[in-house]
Amino acid sequence: MRKISFRIIGGCALMAAVFAVQSFMVGDNTITKENDVYVINTTTIGKNIEGYNGPTPMKVYIKKNKVEKVEFLKSQESPKYYAKVKKALAEKWNGLKVKDAKTRQVDAVTGATYSSKSVIQNVQLALDYYQKNK
């Protein structure tokens, strides 16, 4: 009877240890690969880059070392001003090689300076992250 109890307790302890280790190993999905496209999500790595009302997370899609598109994720920015930023900046990096996109000088949008600067910083952060982790 004691052997069975020790085995049950030992098995439970082992399972608890496995679950604890797995919880620390779970990634933040900053970089993923879908088909041949790398997707860099700045939600976690860019959480301290803030626009006017808070973080402005982005997804940057890269295929064959070229930026395919930049996706604006949900933020707390004013919809009116953020729409101006999206319209002005969404395609600024499309089609550029990563090294060229990193050095591209992009101007902030008048009237939405904080928001546009945070978007530019997030894109730069995503490109840096891609180069270091692809």
Characterize this entry briefly.
The chain has 134 residues and is of the alpha+beta class. The chain has helices spanning 2-25, 79-89, 98-103, 113-133, and strands at residues 31-34, 37-41, 58-63, 66-72. It has a four-stranded antiparallel β-sheet with strand order 1-2-3-4.
Structural class: alpha+beta
What overall form do the CA principal axes indicate?
globular
The residue-averaged pLDDT reads: 86
* Portion in strands: 15-25%
The Cα radius of gyration reads: 21 Å
Figure out the total of helices: 4
Per the CATH scheme, the topology name is Sufe protein. Chain: A
- Order of strands across the biggest sheet? 1-2-3-4
Low-confidence blocks of residues: 10-26
How much helicity do the residues have? 40-55%
Number of strands: 4
Largest sheet: 4 strands, antiparallel
Assigned CATH class: Alpha Beta
Alpha-carbon distance between the two ends: 54 Å
Q: What's the helix-strand series? A: HEEEEHHH
Please give the CATH architecture. Answer: Alpha-Beta Complex
Please, could you describe this protein's structure?
A four-stranded antiparallel beta sheet has the order 1-2-3-4. The protein is globular, with a radius of gyration of 21 Å. α2 (79-89) packs across α4 (113-133). The protein has a single domain (31-133), classed as Sufe protein. Chain: A. With 134 residues, it is α+β, with helices and mostly antiparallel strands. It is built from four helices and four strands, in the order αββββααα. 46% of the residues lie in helices and 16% in strands. A hairpin with a 2-residue loop joins β1 (31-34) and β2 (37-41). The chain has helices spanning 2-25, 79-89, 98-103, 113-133, and strands spanning 31-34, 37-41, 58-63, 66-72.
